[in-house]
Amino acid sequence: xxxKNKNHIRIFVLAVFxxxxxxxxxxxxxxxxxxxxxxxxxxxxxQQLTPEAPFGTSGNNLNCRYGVAGFNEHMLxxxxxxxxxxxxxxxxxxxxxxxxxxxxxxxxxxxxSGSQYLSTxxxxxxxxxxxxxxxxxxxxxxxxxxxxxxxxxxxxxDTYPDMYARIYHDVYEFIxxxxxxxxxxxxxLSMATPGRLQYLDIVWxxxxxxxxxxxxxxxxxxxxxxxSEYNPGIGPGDGKLALGTDPALAKNWPVNNIPYSxxxxxxxxxxxxxxxxxxxxxxxxxxxxxxxxxxGQRDKPLLLSEFGSLYPYIPEVGGCYLSDxxxxxxxxxxxxxxxxxxxxxxxxxxxxxxxYPADRNRLIQQWLWFSFIVGEEVxxxxxxxxxxxxxxxxxxxxxxxxxxxxxxxDQVSTFDLYVxxxxxxxxxxxxxxxxxxxxxxxxxxxxxxxxxxxxxxEPFTVTFYQDEALTQVIDSxxxxxxxxxxxxxxxxxxxxWSGLTPGTYTYWVKLDNGNVIDEELENDNVASGVVxxxxxxxxxxxxNR
Length: 545
Known about the structure:
The chain is of the alpha/beta class. Helices cover about 20% and strands about 25% of the residues.
């Protein structure tokens, strides 16, 4: 972030993204199987429990929903006190070794010659053995975001959408080739305005054209800021136009010859007075989730990998250095009100038909505040959680918090930590019988999640049944790893159902049938699946239209 002087303001957006995983551990039973990996129905394997990806430690008071951006070890030492379960440093490495999850960001940039964009790109770290390769090898199961606001020119990752599609493909393949258990996510764009969603459209379509398949994205991310994108007749607004998009889609700066009270309510205008408008905040998130649903991505987690108030608060005689159109400053009280209102909504939102099913239809699974601290005259300074002299305080000293920092602590402390198991769905399986018995041994399975705010570490059983009343047991498997919260990881439990003759079978599965886990809900632990043995020998109903 570049400092601003008091005669010329250059407000821009800094972007990031993060999430909750702590120490990487693996299940003590079975082998690793991704949820989309086909099941070998002829496998005569022992009972097994397999995760889609690694998970973190439990036993701490960290809340996987809440994150903060930070830049040095001492700054990040306030993460435990704020119960923040994840953080970003805006790069691929971290100086901090605590239990909060570091989400790595691979910075990207389209190469340029002056103002001309070239057909080559640069990543930091480089896609080499000693660059990103060494970091991936050292952190199995890590979440990596590819870029930081590539839609924003000059001050951020400055990449046209067609080039970003290429970069994402190359980084994704590089990481997955080295570590299939890693999660890879798309960069958080600076906003979810129509122009930014067009940027995503171009990325999506270009990827499909180049590689013949839809983008593989484990985790989606977005930043939410409310910044004008275009100043009519002048040029870029505070948030700048999204690279490679139609300027007609941009949110405009209000003009001077019409009363602001008439312009700010317009859908085509973003006033500075609307920078902390919770209604627009929600509107952008809904728009992003609708885009995901329209592109077949509803069943993926979405991270709000950066938000806050970017306009600085610098008191001056008679007011402040920067105010909105109505003369109101971005005071700590104003920023705190925005923090409370947005986080209250993030805690409580649920949109059936649009939200992430594994997380009770929440639109956002995890969110990250920008930031611990930036310089007084830098974008985001009004959102600082730590005082300017925080270095003089011991790590985690509550007295180092600003008024906004205390608001953050009050907010996260309001909500009790909890766990909750949720069954995604049991498998639908087709198998063939084998001679001489003319029966099949079938691996049946269910996907499940922990959509609570804290990880689960107590062992529990997953039991499979032949009947809906859950009285005729097929088999059980013990779960004895740590399961991350916030439904970012899916897990798979499986057993073998032996001796099935040709026909159609329904099975049921229940998580934690012994009620060992003290869950917030107990009514979302049962799912059912179907097994079809020798379909060529079964007569199924014929439906004519």
